[in-house]
Amino acid sequence: MTHTPLKALVTGALGFIGTPLCRRLLERGDTVTMLDLPPKAPSDLIGHSSASYHSLDLTRESDWERVIRGHDVVFHLAANTENRPGMAGRLADYEHTVGATVRLLYALGDKEPTTFVLTSSQLVYGGRAGRAREADPVHPQTTFAAGKVAAEAFLCAYANATHISAVACRLANVIGPGIRRGVVADLVHRLREDPDKLQVLGNGQQRRSYVHVDDCVAALLVAAATAQPGFGILNVSNTDTLTAAEVASVVAAASPGLAPAIEYSGGSAWQGDATALHPDASKLAALGWKPQHTSREAVSSTAQSLFGGSTVQGATT
């Protein structure tokens, strides 16, 4: 099926999910306006003939009309990405998740775009929600989750007022090459520090779904292509799950020449940690999305990419 090129606006464009999303949009022939803070490393996307990059802080009031108007679709990824309490600052969720969303919606006005996709989180359901469905009540247990709920609510109000098509994608654990935080990155970092021992926070029984970043990008594109007038919600979760103990075993197996002893700190990993959460993504699957990587494959390939195929200090090959 022939794709009609779109004009896309992406916030958080140079981040972990934003970078492959922008790359995919450009590959299929779209024109992309990228909004983000100054990059921490060089990006091949900056300077692309069909892309324009703008360094904008969405938490600050500014005249954005010249940059954000005139697009067919907005992918709003910019937000606080640290879900552990106290790690990102007391006001991070309020300022970077809620405030940035409200300011962006206000700046867009009531004419454009026709489609708006927001990245939300599975954590809005609470950490023990099991096979949560989109219609289930939310039960945020951290400020991170509360910020996502509030951002969704403002987008819902905006969609109702403007009659655009808006969808919030509640993401499970998204991982892949280049990820810098989260359980897989943390475990790889610990093995680099101590190749003989791998400590897992909690009791190892926390169960979650893991989505490869490429599958996440595919889900966002499906969400945009199938969004209906008004506000909708889609879970983005894999078909399977892994316990934290299984994740540790997969990471250890992916390490170059290591056979670490796996230990557990016991109890909960941290307050508000998800212990039994596998959102039901059948609604998204019915729209044509199918993950190309299982949770185990996503964890393994992520760990291998983070190790870089190199020998960890202290390991034998």
Overall description:
The structure is a single chain. This protein has nine helices and 13 strands. A seven-stranded parallel sheet has the order 3-2-1-4-5-6-11, with helices on both faces. It has a two-stranded parallel sheet with strand order 7-10. It folds into two domains: about 5-175 and about 210-235, 3-Layer(aba) Sandwich (Rossmann fold), CATH 3.40.50.720; about 180-210 and about 240-275 and about 295-305, UDP-galactose 4-epimerase, domain 1. Residues about 310-315 have low confidence and may be disordered. It is globular and about 60 Å long. With about 325 residues, the chain is an alpha/beta fold. The protein is about 35% helix and about 20% strand. Helix 5 (about 185-195) packs across helix 7 (about 245-255). The chain has helices spanning about 20-25, 65-70, 90-110, 145-160, 185-195, 215-225, 245-255, 280-285, 295-305, and strands at about 5-10, 30-35, 50-55, 75, 115-120, 165-170, 175, 195-200, 205-210, 210, 230-235, 240-245, 260-265.
